[in-house]
Amino acid sequence: MTRAPDDLINLPNRDTRLCISLSGRPSNIGTRFHNYIYRELGLDYLYKAFTTTDLPAAISGVRALGVRGCAISMPFKEAVIELIDVMEPSASAIDSVNTIVNEDGVLHAYNTDYSAVASLLRSHDVDAALPVAVAGSGGMAKAVVAALRDNGFADVTVVARNPDTGGALAAAYGFTHTTTAPSSARVLINVTPIGMAGGAAENDLPFSDELIGSAATVFDVVAMPSETPLIRAARAVGVPVITGAEVIALQAAEQFALYTGVTPDPDLVRRASEFSRR
Prior knowledge:
Strand content: 15-25%
CATH superfamily of the largest domain: Leucine Dehydrogenase, chain A, domain 1
Largest sheet: 6 strands, mixed
Helix content: 25-40%
């Protein structure tokens, strides 16, 4: 029998475990990140990015086809809840899902955004005494606001044009809501699609130049591109930044562990994150 070439032996096969992502605007970041680590560790997994206009059907497919894991991004983080079997504490605490793990047809939901944001606030030494403005009121905003509260931030304003969602989010965590960012804000966090590549507002700023210039820290959760207009504006005036690239690497590493049972070491996560953006 002819032996298969070495580079063909590890091709995906019927036993390969599939993980996917569902997003309104799919990118290659997660795909490249996960597949890089699968290959480095010799794991028989494959990761693929998708979008959908029929979320219930897509989640039914995850269950029926035995898809091992599914990352959930905007705009599906809250809509997917009714399709889940088990809400784990990290997701139920903020009513937002970014990770689904399929355990033999039973779908478990988690939220790794929360832990990533909390970790970055600590590692970047963001002063909890400073007033914070959070632009946005969607699923990711819940993770951010919860992480702020649980890390001792007390002066937080949710900035959202929708008074219903913005007001409800602020009230749920004991904060305030406005439609414009207060001039006192010194930590600026963007959790809206403003600045996202391919979006209608990809060249816009979620905060004024004046606020950016007086900020102590600027944090943009938008991951594509990592150098958003907000991040570039902050760097230009010497304001320390936290990027969406950092968020996505940390939360993806936790997702990876949930899907595979393997925790990648920090250096491998760093290399995978760099590779995902080439």
